Amino acid sequence: MKKIRRNFIVIAMLSMFLVLSVIIAALNYINYQKMEKALDDVTRILEIGNGSFYESPDPSEEDHDPSIHSYQEEDNPKAHNKVPEPPKSISEETPYQTRYFTVRYDASGTIYATSVGHISAVNATQARSYAAEVYDSAPGTGFIDIYRYRTVKSGDRVLCIFIDAEKELSTYRGSLITSIAISAAGLFSVFLLLCIFSKLILRPVEESYRKQKQFLTDAGHELKTPLTIIDANTEVLEMEIGSSKWLDSTRNQVIRLTNMVKQFTALAKMDEAQGFLQKSRFSLSHALSETVDLFIPVATSTHRTLQVSCAEDLYYVGNEEQFRQLFCLLLDNAIKYSTPDSTIKLTLSKRGKHLCFIIFNECNGLEKGSQDILFERFYRSDSSRNSSTGGSGIGLSIAHSIVETHKGSIHAESSDGKSLQIKVLL
Fold this sequence. Notes:
This protein has a six-stranded antiparallel sheet with strand order 1-3-2-6-5-4, sandwiched between helices. Strands 8-10-11-14-13-12 form a six-stranded mixed sheet, with helices on one face. The chain has a two-stranded antiparallel ribbon with strand order 7-9. The protein folds into three domains: 2-170, 3-Layer(aba) Sandwich (Profilin-like), CATH 3.40.1840.10; 207-273, Helix Hairpins, CATH 1.10.287.130; 280-425, Heat Shock Protein 90 (2-Layer Sandwich). It has ten helices and 14 strands. The chain is elongated, with a radius of gyration of 41 Å. It has 426 residues and is of the alpha+beta class. Helix content is 51%, strand content 20%.
């Protein structure tokens, strides 16, 4: 249940994070676009005014190349009464609030006029330096340092307009940082609330899970007694009337049910033992070799061959008894469902920081691709349901629980539909 609760919190937090990220990104993108538009409206007015807010330039504010005259009459749109309606973002105070400077280039690419009379933070030399950085770019707008610029080409001349955008950029950054901080605080608050109330939310699931485990445990204990009685009665009948196929069938079914009950109990105990597992360092290679030796007679009697490739001295920290059970379950499954006269291949090796165990067998009735559904409890494929293997559909589920308890991974795959490979990574 701790894992379910943790996954619930993670999924909820990720969902909240994605939603808030989209909202913050959208809001700040809109704010940035509005800021750019407002600044571009001002540079556009300055462009229309040929470098000023419809005012004739003051010669005292100009820094000219001595060999070139300042402005020509035809450069000033006010001389022709060309004063368009300003955008709504431009107020009567804008000309007095805006800090700007301009630089003009002639046809030869030489600066012939620099206006810095409307800004105190930039002198003529700095203005020319900024202009040199944007002169070669295509006509348009952009940012350089804290200034929004617009380059305008008129005939063979180029006008570079720069306005101080420090206030707007500072406001935007403040808004961005504030929105991120508020969202982070909101996420943290949601995380705390989820940690507090997730247990309450998942209580019905936890109760259902607890009852399921209790049912498996109780059913296992309740079934042991009648199975023992049936087995004893079968032995008595066999002594009185002799052996028969009916008694043999009954005994086989009793054995099968007894094994199922043991698996039920093992599965329930494994669920309860998660987090309280006794671990020690042991030789995984030795555990596999001994398990294979136990199954060689079984494989031989069913016309299967075991081919083992096991690296020596591979040690692991875990529950040795459970890993021996894991190898038994996987070998038993491979022998039961492999095709007759086939070879079952087992490989144990070290891959980087992982220990890798692979068991491969030929079989029928599978589809190509992932076969992880085999680890579902009580799942059996159609071909195995109709066979006489005696499987219960619990063995691979127990194998999956063992690996999961040790924080490993187990996957089943069929590359051709005629074979099965189960891979365990630790």
